[in-house]
Amino acid sequence: MLHWIALLVFGLLSIAPFRVVVITVIGISVIAAIIKIPSLLVMAGIVTAVSILFPPLTLILSIIFFLMKISYIINHYKALLFGAGLITYLIYISINNYYADYFWSALRFGYYLPTPLIQRTVLQMVVSMLIIHLLLYFLYRNKYTTKEALIIMSTVPLFLLLLILPFILNQLEELKDFLDTDTFDEFEENQMGSTTYNPNPELHTVEGHYRTNSDGSVSYVRPHVRTNPDGFKSNNLR
């Protein structure tokens, strides 16, 4: 029974909007971790807290966590790889499923559903159910039960989070340092142009050019001399 429930849930997720897929995957991952390896959630909380308070220690903690779970990963690498593949598959097709929101809204409010859209949705659901069915069948042949296989595959997001969290936080820390320094101000000035007033502006000659007026007419501006009040000639050519 659990096998067929898993197939149905996975099939429905394959035609669900992206936000539904993400929320569901996270929820299932947390529940699976509570059932199978509660220490995974504890470690995730510790790594997250340490990452916020003491960022340099995050990488060390992640390495320690990985070594602590290395035997678990080796023993169940097939199920973990299948789980990662299925989650990647769900995310990919949900991002590229531009009609998911319309499909579910049409079902809810009784809108018209074109036959090609129905056929495409049903086919996508059937193919997705077939994929997870074959993967689970392979795991059964490797002495996994349905419950064990599903729980192990569902813990993949937390494993990945703990492995990549140090790198994400490191990038955020570098971005924060960049924004807090004068480098960002210099970058912004180069992009937007300085607005600092120059008490001794230089002079330059503006070439004659045509200008479009507010009423749509075009007038010719004669060559003239003007100053560079902000110190940048390129900002004051006209």
UniProtKB/TrEMBL annotation:
Name of this protein: Uncharacterized protein
Bilayer-crossing regions: 7-35, 41-67, 79-100, 120-140, 149-169
Residue ranges of the region described as Disordered: 214-238
Species, as recorded: Natronobacillus azotifigens
UniProtKB keywords: Membrane, Transmembrane, Transmembrane helix
